[in-house]
UniProtKB/TrEMBL annotation:
Organism expressing this protein natively: Dysgonomonas gadei ATCC BAA-286
Protein name, as recorded: Phospholipid/glycerol acyltransferase domain-containing protein
Pfam families named in the record: Acyltransf_2
CDD domains tied to this protein: LPLAT_ACT14924-like
Domain Phospholipid/glycerol acyltransferase positions: 82-206
Molecular function GO labels: acyltransferase activity
Transmembrane segments: none
InterPro entries: ACT14924-like_Acyltransf_dom, Plipid/glycerol_acylTrfase
Length: 275
């Protein structure tokens, strides 16, 4: 395990501006303003565990209550591969809650996650780290994308379940609602190629009004706030709802990827309940 989830060296290696006397001051500011100190404290409190035990201990110590609806649908898949597709309302905590939920039934469940979440070494048995949304204009990103997709398909081929956030980013703020952007073709093509049952999973949560307001200014400014949105969920209740599994035969009816994505997204958001 790491001494710290996010170390000073990690930040200082990002750019020369974080080095030297002024760099040390700037690094301290990043840790404080960016919420890194709080995230490290959460990690430190549970890092004696790994995998599902780490996830549940961390969520329990944060006082995050998980409540499930139609959870028994997973009992149909005690063996064999399947894919969960989920909305992405909060950020890093979505992936952690998804693992707590689905791996509670299937310990071999893994999620496709971004670089930041994959830094949690105590959870790496449930991760396939990848940047599946790269534009392809950088060879390194393209290689990461292709390698990660290959790992996902191999995981499914070997008979294991996989979790995906097809939006590839945290839900976007609109004037009257917060909702995922259009689900990304790269992930939808992966689902098509896998030819396994798909289970919609709706995570009923939201971020603070500060985070939502920043989203109207700039997504880059909003991203700076994202780690705070992990630590401020203490004592919250988050509902996870499962929909009817979508068979391979039903998926095959959609030949247009965009229509396929709209269908899967609609099946997921159909479980949203009015507050």
């Amino acid at each position: 395990m790491k001494e710290k989830l996010i170390s000073r060296d990690m930040i200082q290696n990002l750019h020369p501006i974080f080095r030297g006397r002024f760099g040390n001051v700037l690094t301290n500011i990043v840790f404080s303003v960016g919420g890194l100190n709080k995230v490290n404290a959460i990690y430190d409190a549970s890092k004696q565990y790994t995998g599902l035990e780490f996830v549940n201990d961390m969520l329990d110590k944060m006082g995050i209550i998980r409540k499930y609806e139609n959870y028994e649908v997973l009992d149909q898949f005690k063996e064999g591969p399947f894919i969960t597709v989920s909305n992405h309302p909060i950020g890093h905590i979505d992936g952690i809650i998804a693992i707590s939920t689905v791996a509670g039934k299937r310990r071999d469940y893994k999620m496709m996650v971004n670089w930041m979440l994959s830094q949690i070494d105590t959870m790496d048995e449930h991760f396939i780290g990848v940047n599946p949304y790269a534009k392809g204009n950088k060879m390194k990103d393209l290689k990461s994308s292709l390698g990660g997709v290959k790992q996902c398909l191999e995981h499914l081929h070997d008979g294991h379940p996989l979790g995906l956030f097809p939006a590839g980013g945290v839900s976007t703020n609109h004037l009257t609602k917060t909702e995922d952007r259009e689900w990304q073709p790269t992930v939808l093509k992966l689902i098509k190629k896998a030819k396994v049952p798909v289970i919609p999973m709706y995570i009923d949560g939201s971020n603070s009004w500060i985070y939502r307001t920043l989203g109207f200014i700039s997504w880059k400014i909003r991203t700076v706030r994202l780690l705070h949105e992990t630590t401020n969920k203490r004592g919250k209740t988050i509902y996870v709802r499962f929909g009817k599994p979508i068979s391979v035969e039903e998926q095959a009816k959609f030949t247009d990827i965009k229509e396929f994505g709209e269908f899967l997204k609609a099946q997921t958001y159909a479980m949203k309940k009015k507050r």
